[in-house]
């Protein structure tokens, strides 16, 4: 049998692609955002973003992401963080409810866990933001809009495609179904395929705006 040109290259590239996608999927699954309000100053909201051992910080008054220096202590995991150029050490501990940050002066600050959320702007109507809230290890999806943020609709899962990491969902009481699939990038946005063939992108939401 004649070997096709480029066959060896494909054999090398395919495992690398699989490893890259697996790493991105794991990163998505372990990416979490926490929030703390009114701790140092009234009206100020602080955020901590944890992705495996990578930690970043920003606030409502300074929306520039700051990558923190981290220290990992097995088997505990993340142990301490430091701001760039500072010797001050903060102890960090994640729990099911949120995250504790112990300051160098002894103060303890609690950050609440934020839901993993994706947003799409101006798709159906200009000025309207649509949200997808994901829980249950990426198996439960809730939908709501900026017009009625308190009315969250839990979508019903019709089918799962594990090979392509996508889910077929529908609104309660409706027959029309939508396919939700994660994009093959480390951003892990969600692509929604509508029944009429339209494609809508829901981007990962970092909670910087719209508090």
From TrEMBL:
Domain of life: Bacteria
Leader sequence residues: 1-29
The entry's keywords: Lipoprotein, Signal
Protein known as: Lipoprotein, putative
Organism in which the protein naturally occurs: Microscilla marina ATCC 23134
């Amino acid at each position: 049998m004649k070997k096709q040109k480029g066959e060896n290259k494909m054999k090398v590239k395919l495992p690398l692609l699989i490893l890259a996608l697996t790493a991105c999927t794991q990163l998505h699954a372990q990416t979490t955002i926490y929030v703390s309000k009114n701790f140092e100053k009234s009206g100020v909201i602080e955020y901590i973003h944890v992705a495996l051992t990578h930690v970043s910080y920003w606030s409502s008054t300074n929306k520039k992401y700051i990558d923190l220096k981290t220290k990992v202590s097995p088997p505990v995991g993340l142990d301490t963080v430091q701001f760039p150029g500072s010797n001050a050490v903060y102890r960090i501990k994640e729990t099911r409810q949120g995250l504790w940050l112990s300051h160098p002066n002894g103060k303890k600050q609690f950050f609440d866990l934020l839901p993993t959320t994706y947003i799409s702007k101006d798709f159906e109507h200009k000025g309207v933001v649509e949200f997808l809230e994901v829980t249950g290890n990426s198996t439960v999806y809730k939908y709501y809009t900026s017009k009625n943020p308190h009315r969250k609709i839990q979508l019903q899962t019709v089918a799962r495609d594990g090979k392509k990491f996508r889910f077929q969902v529908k609104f309660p009481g409706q027959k029309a179904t939508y396919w939700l699939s994660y994009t093959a990038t480390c951003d892990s946005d969600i692509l929604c395929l509508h029944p009429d063939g339209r494609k809508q992108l829901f981007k990962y939401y970092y909670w910087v705006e719209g508090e």
